[in-house]
């Protein structure tokens, strides 16, 4: 279990997330949703100890904010919304990079070879393992980046808008993979998502945020109770969704 206690996250002197506390469980996906500027990405980075934070982030009673960075990378994998690549590598080489925290380099030790091969097959990437990353489509690139994060063998996977810029087919495929892997490997997954339909369909629970604070955390039905969405987004989201569904039913 991942336990976050009174977490405050700042950029310089500006505190963006204030006093967040919550628990997250193995094999489950938590979608973090809310309007722009709600502090979703900041919370994710705070949990990953990627910016200035106060509070505690404990994984099975171990405070992740107090351990060396290399040990943190063996427990937590973070997939950023935007990734720039100045050099080109093959798909297989990209995955071996994810083994750095375990092998302290990209050397092909036995365990690394096993997990890379397993992940190439699980993600249907083996046939393109010798292709260069720049040759791939957007959906394929995102699948490779997710696979690279998972070869770290993390206990916690942090995803910042993993479906950004993907068409619907690739969005569904990618989140389907995330759900499958989370269950099979018992990984705690926290994912920032803007698409509420995806969040409600794929996540086991949803964390709704506004202005750096938690509004509510619970199942999809809980999120829809008492008009939490309308209050948070300052817009009648449920009514809009129902009207959209009616269009498809015509």
Automatic annotation (TrEMBL):
<dbReference type="Pfam" id="PF00005">
    <property type="entry name" value="ABC_tran"/>
</dbReference>
<protein>
    <submittedName>
        <fullName>Iron complex transport system ATP-binding protein</fullName>
    </submittedName>
</protein>
<dbReference type="InterPro" id="IPR017871">
    <property type="entry name" value="ABC_transporter-like_CS"/>
</dbReference>
<dbReference type="InterPro" id="IPR003439">
    <property type="entry name" value="ABC_transporter-like_ATP-bd"/>
</dbReference>
<keyword id="KW-1278">Translocase</keyword>
<keyword id="KW-0547">Nucleotide-binding</keyword>
<dbReference type="GO" id="GO:0005524">
    <property type="term" value="F:ATP binding"/>
</dbReference>
<keyword id="KW-0067">ATP-binding</keyword>
<keyword id="KW-0813">Transport</keyword>
<dbReference type="InterPro" id="IPR003593">
    <property type="entry name" value="AAA+_ATPase"/>
</dbReference>
<feature type="domain" description="ABC transporter">
    <location>
        <begin position="2"/>
        <end position="236"/>
    </location>
</feature>
<dbReference type="InterPro" id="IPR027417">
    <property type="entry name" value="P-loop_NTPase"/>
</dbReference>
């Amino acid at each position: 279990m991942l336990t976050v206690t009174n977490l405050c996250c700042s950029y310089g002197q500006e505190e963006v997330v204030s006093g967040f506390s919550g628990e997250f469980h193995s094999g489950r996906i938590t979608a973090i949703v809310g309007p722009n500027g709600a502090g979703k990405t900041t919370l994710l980075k705070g949990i990953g100890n990627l910016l200035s934070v106060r509070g505690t982030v404990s994984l099975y009673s171990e405070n992740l904010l107090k351990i060396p960075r290399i040990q943190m990378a063996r427990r937590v994998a973070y997939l950023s919304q935007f990734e720039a690549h100045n050099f080109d590598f093959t798909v297989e080489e990209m995955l071996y990079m994810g083994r750095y925290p375990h092998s302290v380099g990209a050397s092909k030790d036995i365990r690394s070879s096993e997990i890379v091969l397993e992940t190439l097959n699980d993600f249907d990437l083996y046939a393109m393992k010798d292709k260069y990353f720049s040759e791939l489509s957007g959906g394929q690139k995102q699948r490779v980046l997710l696979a690279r994060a998972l070869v770290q063998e993390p206990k916690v996977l942090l995803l910042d808008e993993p479906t950004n810029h993907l068409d619907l087919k690739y969005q569904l495929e990618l989140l389907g993979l995330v759900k499958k892997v989370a269950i099979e490997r018992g990984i705690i997954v926290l994912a920032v998502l803007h698409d509420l339909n995806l969040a409600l369909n794929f996540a086991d629970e949803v964390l709704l945020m506004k202005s750096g604070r938690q509004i509510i955390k619970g199942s999809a039905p809980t999120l829809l109770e008492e008009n939490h969405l309308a209050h948070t987004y300052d817009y009648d989201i449920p009514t809009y969704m129902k009207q959209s569904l009616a269009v498809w039913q015509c």
